Amino acid sequence: xxxxxxxxxGCKLHVQRAGSGEPLLFLHGAQxxxxxxxxxxxxxxxxxxxxxxxxxxGRSETSDIVDDTADLALFYLDLLDTLKLDQVHLxxxxxxxxxxxxxxxxxxxxIKSLVLVSSAGLRIKGVPRADMFVCSEDDLMKxxxxxxxxxxxxxxxxxxxxxxxxxDRNRAAAAKYSWSPRLCNxxxxxxxxxxxxxxxxxxxxxxxxxxxxxxxxxxxxxxxxTLTTLPDCAHLxxxxxxxxxxxxxxxxxxxxxx
Length: 258
Prior knowledge:
19% strand, single chain, alpha/beta
């Protein structure tokens, strides 16, 4: 794995890269990246996996021109230009999925396929989402995990003082981008018809943060989209069901080559 700082519009973005093959850009969710994401390690066996920390997360700088997910979408389209990435497979989880959607409705010129994992972005009346920001740590773990993997995951974030600081920084940055309106762009659904690349949706059957009804809504609104629901899995498929997650992503991407 390589680490680098990439200058995008004056912001030093921390980017990790692992594996080889077709480029796959993974946009992380509200929890950020601890470096212990087994689903991404599995994907790196088949792809050149590129994992940036969003501006304000992890070891990336904040950006004076990036205030919301619409800005992040344009920022990451600029990243594709900066890295000269053509025909990239775009995978986004939670707010990363929301950013990916905002990118795809603007331009798919450099995007070969789109995978949405427990994606934020939509709002469905009558189907509430859980609040990750106003709850105890114990309750948060119950929201994020269906099984008993939360203790090990949380331990990975407590491994060093630096990681503990990053965990807190990530929570603050996530709130900045998704607090109001909470985890959604109310207008987004009106533009999903613009997505013209193969799209696949992956969701945990026990997702309590963004219920599976949102997966069905995305499938209905994105032309030709397909959906996989993972059993015994909540909001973090790449952590809780890493092999099933990676296998499903790889299978979908291989299918787009036909």
